[in-house]
Amino acid sequence: MSTPSPSPGSKRTRTESTPSCARVAAEHRRQMSMPVVHTETPCSACFRVSVANWFAAHESAGFPVPFAFYCKQDTDQSRKCVGCFESKGNCIQLPVGLIGHRFELLAVLAWLAEFCRIPGMVPEATSELALKVRNIMGAFFKLLEQHQANEIADYASWLANHQPEYRVPLGNPVKWHYLWERSRACPKLQYSEENVNFWMASLANFHNSVSAVMAALFDPTSAEIRRIEQHLGDFPVPLPLTF
Length: 243
Description:
Blueprint: H1 21-27, E1 36-38, H2 44-58, E2 71-73, H3 82-87, H4 99-113, H5 123-149, H6 155-160, H7 175-184, H8 196-217, H9 225-232
Antiparallel strand pairs: 1-2
Helix pairs in contact: 4-5, 4-7, 5-8
């Protein structure tokens, strides 16, 4: 005896041959013709994964490739990036209140990448600099965790009190200075708040440790030393404190 077909207008019953909405979405994630790769605004997961992947991919080669974040959005049908979609994780952006500090981090990483263009850089030196990247990333993760642990009751009011009036000037051709200017125009912790001294000390230590690596690598009489000294003095984040 055959099973009767459902009459028009009747509710369809899902069977094993009828895929769920979630399965259809997974199998038919509509691709954009030109996917967008976020190198300055990664989600929280891609922020961490980018660090791990960079070390895993380049450690054996002495880190010839400057660090960069990677967070790919390939569809306009889902808020999840590719990485979070594939891992079935939550795609959460970094807290708005730390956007300014994120641009500080991007600025010092762009500043560091310039050393890779100096003649005479050897894998041993770039490996030492990569350790400094690991350290400053660890400091930012700690800043992020502490900010989230504070559980600010009225985050909207907190953000309203942390909106700078500064506007980014146009036309700055130096990437690390441009990123620093962007950090000044975004919300970040004020100098009187908890954890700011920790973060500023981490930035100062980053600069000082990079200076030590370069001083150990190049002879004071070498042709490159003047260019190195000039670039060391071009650190994008003002460091008024001494340690």
